[in-house]
Automatic annotation (TrEMBL):
InterPro entries: MdtP/NodT-like (IPR010131), OMP_efflux (IPR003423). It comes from Nitrosomonas communis. PANTHER family: BLR4455 PROTEIN, OUTER MEMBRANE CATION EFFLUX PROTEIN. Residues 201-228 form a coiled coil. This is Efflux transporter, outer membrane factor (OMF) lipoprotein, NodT family.
């Protein structure tokens, strides 16, 4: 009997709730529906014609392939297994990336929790009490003491007629997207910093070695000029000037060593290790190959690929949803409530039909006067949307400017390296000529030493530009978004076998990123 009563009543209430849910589903969601901003119509990053290739420097030309796809593992184009190992270790152990992934999981959980508002809220209530009833107020001397046991179930459902709940979930979804692109941004920045720091460290090491060679050459010049001064051939001023140049060179050496150490400490931090416990495996400039084929995304594709732009777009979406939330707060809210239960003075008889009770109804709350609070909250939401829209536009402008800067930097790096390659070739040729003339007795050793110093100084400038060219190449891949959208589903983080970004884009969203 008891089971039959609960079945009939539950079926009745669920039927009513289903009907109300259908009515609520047909309601309107107030506020603007978010529309994705159109990509910029510009087709180039720099004024004039499209860049096709750089000049040849060291026999290497970098070609720009317009509209080509960017590899997700772009750092492997430098062809350094040691660099690849560092990147893999950083992805596995970097605390900043781990923190961003945890924030993404948190936002995903909040979104899943937000979906619960679309379902009825069902609670089970139970109680047991002992009460004394005084009949004196009714003119009767008889009073009684009794037990009361209650067991009931309540169902409530918020009718989302004006879309407040739908806009709230929409805002949570946009927040999840923001965290997703924050993870991608962290991931891309991490890899970019690893590659950039490895190149910087290799450049400092090469400069240190060349500076030490230059110092030895300078010391030899000083020794020879001092001998000539003692013989009365040269004045005292000449060796003094050379010693001054030597001091300048030697003072630059500790600064280079400091920068090398700082680069090593930064690398240790990026891969999640303590600097004092990290043993760095040296990577020289010669271990790094220059990528010669550089894919260039069109500006219209860039805004669908760079994670910072997509994050700004998600923030714009969230601001749009917040307008709907603030607007819906100005309209009435409706809630359907239903309760069914049993009570009895005897616990064993609680399921007897004589003790059942039920209720069903609805209530609403309509704001009549709030002193302008709701109006200005909606106005503030609109202002926040306009702010997000301006920030989105600024993010796009900054992104396009960054790509333009890097493209021209690569062009100028190649031109500078071309001249410095010729300079170092001529300096080396002159040094060899002086060495041959010295062996033939045509010049003194001081002239040989001067030629060697000029060669090492030219080499020092060359190494700086060579490292800069490699760094600017890495910066181009980062500026173009790093190809994260091409990561295959099988690509996983070494940590706990988790998917790198935890919450993946759907196939439809992934295809949209590729084709837009």
């Amino acid at each position: 009997m008891c089971e039959h009563i609960f079945h009939v009543k539950a079926k009745y209430m669920l039927t009513r709730l289903w009907t109300v849910w259908l009515l609520a589903a047909t309601g309107c969601a107030v506020g603007p529906d978010f529309v994705r901003p159109q990509p910029p119509e510009t087709e180039r990053y720099v004024p004039g014609k499209q860049l096709q290739e750089t000049v040849s420097a060291d026999g290497q030309i970098q070609y720009f392939e317009q509209g080509a796809e960017i590899a997700a593992d772009w750092w492997q184009l430098f062809k350094s297994p040691k660099l690849d190992a560092l990147v893999k270790e950083a992805i596995a152990n970097n605390p900043t990336l781990e923190s961003a992934q945890a924030s993404l999981r948190q936002s995903q959980d909040n979104l899943q929790a937000g979906y619960g508002v679309f379902f009825p809220q069902i609670d089970l209530l139970g109680g047991a009490s002992r009460q004394r009833f005084s009949a004196a107020r009714f003119g009767s001397p008889v009073s009684s003491t009794f037990n009361l046991f209650t067991l009931s179930a309540s169902v409530s459902y918020a009718l989302d007629i004006f879309g407040a709940q739908r806009r709230t979930v929409e805002a949570l979804s946009a927040s999840r997207d923001m965290q997703h692109y924050s993870v991608v941004t962290t991931y891309l920045t991490l890899i970019g910093n690893i590659v950039n720091t490895v190149i910087a460290r290799a450049g400092y090491e090469a400069q240190i070695q060349t500076t030490q060679q230059l110092i030895e050459s300078q010391r030899e010049q000083i020794r020879l000029t001092e001998l000539q001064m003692q013989a009365g051939i040269l004045e005292y001023e000449k060796p003094v000037n050379l010693r001054l140049q030597l001091e300048v060179l030697e003072s630059s050496l500790p600064r280079l060593m400091q920068k090398r150490s700082q680069a090593e400490h930064l690398l240790a931090t990026l891969i999640g290790q303590f600097p004092g416990e990290h043993e760095f495996e040296k990577i020289d400039l010669a271990d790094l190959s220059l990528p010669t084929i550089l894919p260039i995304s069109l500006p219209s594709s860039l805004v669908r690929q760079r994670p910072d732009i997509l994050l700004a777009e998600a923030q714009l979406h969230q601001s749009s949803a917040n307008i709907g939330i603030a607007t819906a707060a100005m309209f009435p809210s409706f809630t359907l409530n239903a309760t069914y239960g049993q009570n009895n003075r005897n616990l064993l008889d609680i399921f007897l039909s004589s003790g059942n009770f039920w209720s069903i109804g609805t209530n609403f709350v309509a704001p009549l006067f709030r002193g302008g609070t709701l109006w200005f909250q909606r106005k503030a939401a609109i202002d926040a949307f306009q702010q997000s829209r301006a920030q989105y536009r600024q993010t796009i402008l900054n992104a396009l400017a960054q790509v333009a800067d890097v493209l021209l930097a690569l062009e100028y790096d190649a031109e500078a390296l071309q001249h410095q390659s010729q300079e170092i070739h001529l300096a080396q040729e002159r040094m060899h000529l002086m060495q041959a003339n010295y062996q033939a007795g045509l010049v003194n050793y001081q002239q040989v030493s001067i030629a060697e110093s000029q060669y090492f100084q030219s080499k020092l400038n060359y190494l700086q530009t060579l490292a800069l060219r490699l760094q600017d190449t890495a910066a181009l891949f980062v500026a173009l978004g790093g190809g994260w959208w091409n990561i295959e589903e099988k690509t996983r983080s070494p940590r706990d076998d988790e998917i790198l970004f935890d919450v993946k884009l759907s196939e439809e969203e992934t295809d949209k990123v590729k084709t837009d």
